[in-house]
Design a protein that fits this description.
single chain, alpha/beta, six-stranded mixed β-sheet, 11 helices, 31% helix, binds flavin-adenine dinucleotide
Length: 368
């Protein structure tokens, strides 16, 4: 058995800790904050297979979906729900893109099916707006982002061979050891650094030439919605973001509304296990980011939600922004290995929650 030092307590670091423990390695995991509070807890908790690019990205997402389900069964706090999703069409051109996806050779593996308006309402009775139909994806799933990390850590700690060390900023990593800001050194045969969007921290020298950018998203959560959403929801604007929809028929999509274009908005809705609706999002790339959130896209996203559901949603309880690290090439993530015993993993973009268990598994396979 060898010892692995993981830097970063987000979902990528935590899944690496889990994957290392699965292989019998002893793990010590350092986290800068008292409790991780960045992208991994600010997201929708969507395990999103439907929109993945065909080929390796889809296969990785499918593997991740299997692992999430296994984890959900072993660790109930993860809150895994195999609810699937509906991407709802309100324009004929959106329906045409969905129909083209369903015609692709990988449609069965994706678990996608085209539904008319009545079938959509049957699948999710809360969808009572003016709609034309929907793309159903049975492989999409939901987890609870505020619960996943503590639940996984509790599970790992119960199994032994795992120590979580919060409130420690790793200041230097090299083969065999990581030093933190208190001066303590953490020794390991392998060092895995998962810094999220903190590209300028301990991993800066390793990421200097990596194809990475950062993206800031705005999100909100309502008070509990008095009805169960049987699926996650997306709107037609999401067809512009996910690579699965880069199909010839996408050229006929109507131009985005000005607010959608300005804020690069799409609607995603995930209901929390406790009933609240998590609603987003926007995409902003130019830094420095505003420290305040902007009301304009929120009004648009609420109106879109209400237009799909055909009813008012409860008052918004919380608003926040989150930043993720995104690879700018067509790789699934950035995995830099400056030494056989050191690896830096980040850049999973808006699919990090989804892909995390499978990416961690791959890293451990590469290291072995
Ligand atoms: C608003 C939003 C919505 C999203 N929705 C989804 C979704 O629904 N589905 C999906 O698949 N993906 C989604 N994503 C993407 C996903 O959340 C991210 O890809 C993923 O959480 C990245 O995880 P991470 O561990 O790399 O980063 P983070 O969560 O940022 O974690 C990195 C951690 O490392 C710690 N750290 C950094 N440097 C050091 C250091 N020197 N020493 C110690 N600790 C350090 C930080 O404190 C932090 O806790 C979303 C992202 C955002 C922002």
């Amino acid at each position: 058995m060898s010892r692995v030092v993981v830097v970063g307590g987000g979902v990528i670091g935590t899944m690496h800790a889990w994957a290392a423990r699965r292989r019998g390695h002893e793990v010590v995991q350092l986290e800068a904050d008292a409790e991780p509070r960045r992208a991994s807890v600010r997201n929708f908790g969507l395990v999103w297979v439907s929109g993945r690019a065909p080929g390796p990205e889809l296969e990785l997402a499918l593997r991740a979906r299997v692992l999430w389900e296994e984890l959900g069964a072993a660790v109930s706090g993860v809150g895994f729900r195999p609810d699937g999703s509906l991407t709802v069409a309100q324009h004929p051109a959106e329906l045409a893109v969905m129909a083209e996806l369903v015609d692709q050779a990988d449609a069965d593996r994706r678990g996608v099916q085209l539904l008319d308006a009545d079938e959509t309402r049957e699948r999710n009775p809360a969808v009572r707006g003016e709609i034309l139909g929907a793309l159903s994806c049975t492989r999409d799933a939901i987890v609870e982002p505020r619960q996943v990390l503590p639940a996984l850590r509790t599970h790992l700690a119960a199994g032994g061979g795992y120590a979580f060390v919060p409130g420690r900023i790793a200041t230097h990593g090299e083969p065999g050891r990581v030093a933190d800001h208190t001066g303590e050194a953490h020794e390991g045969d392998v060092v895995v650094v998962c810094p999220g969007a903190m590209h300028d921290g301990v991993a800066a020298e390793f990421l200097a030439d990596a194809p990475l950018r950062r993206c800031r998203l705005q999100m909100m959560q309502t008070e509990p919605f008095g009805e169960r959403l049987t699926t996650a929801l997306a709107d037609g604007d999401s067809l512009r973001y996910y690579p699965a929809f880069e199909l010839p028929s996408a050229a006929a999509l109507p131009p985005p509304a000005p607010v959608v274009a300005e804020y690069r908005a799409q609607l995603l809705v995930a209901q929390r296990a406790s009933g609240e609706l998590t609603i987003g999002d926007t995409h902003h790339y130019d830094e420095p980011y505003d420290f305040a959130v902007d009301e304009v896209p929120y009004a648009h996203l609420l109106a879109r939600t209400e237009s799909l559901l055909g009813r008012a949603v409860p008052p918004v309880q919380r608003r926040w922004a989150g930043v993720y690290s995104q690879a700018t090439d067509d790789s699934r993530c950035v995995r830099v290995r400056p030494d056989p015993r050191v690896v830096v993993v980040t850049g999973l973009g808006g699919r990090g929650m989804t892909l995390s268990p499978a990416v961690a598994e791959q890293t451990m396979e590469e290291l072995s």
